[in-house]
Design goal:
There is one protein chain. It contains seven helices and nine strands. By secondary structure, the protein is of the alpha/beta class. The protein has one domain: Spore Coat Polysaccharide Biosynthesis Protein SpsA, Chain A (Alpha-Beta Complex). The strands form two sheets. Strands 3-2-1-4-7-5-8 form a seven-stranded mixed β-sheet, sandwiched between helices. It has a two-stranded parallel ribbon with strand order 6-9. The longest helix has about 30 residues. It is globular.
Length: about 240
Amino acid sequence: MPDIAIVIPVLNERENLLRLLPLLKDALGEMGLSGEIIVADGGSVDGSQETAEQFGARVIVQHEKGFGGALQAGFAAAKAPYIVTMDADLSHRPDFLPTFWRERETAELLIASRFVEGGRAELSRFRLMLSRVLSLAYRRTLGLQVLDLSSGFRMYRSGILDWRLLQAHDFDVQPEILFRIHAGGFRIREIPFHYMERNYGKSHARLFRFGWSFSKTLFRMWRLRQSHDKATTYIQGVE
């Protein structure tokens, strides 16, 4: 069994994979870990799958749509006790992996955070403002004490969540995962991180769709929390 699994959602990222995958292999080697690299491909037509296999990654073709579908496919394929999710575009640098590994016992979910003290983000002002506003809305509505809920650079301890429960299909899967892990009573910790500009190509995130999907998921999680609170109140009243 590998020590760690790296899950990378991919859609036409061949040029970035050519740089990222060798860096990942070097980082795992320097850490002395056995790792599996899982590329969850959403239908690339630029040779991303062939490039990933060339560097020894395992390619999983996702069957559910969107970023959420890629994560579900990657989680289902991972066998390691720790699972890291990261973007393919080098905005998440492999040299942060030793920090994750060093802090692995401090929480069941570690988040590379742009917004805690010491964190930085190379983002446009609008994207930065949108991320902060959405994070604030989730914190106040759901009680999630997380400053960077949209960060996709994370390390999970395996077994803390049934990934089949996830309903979000786009980037809004990130706060849904957080809410479900928080509701399960597991520890979540943010670690300062410097988010870089993507190395090559354009982002697949569309800001209007990003904001709309996060808003819909917030409402759905709020309803789920209300149902949970009512059920808890009823059970305690019966007892």
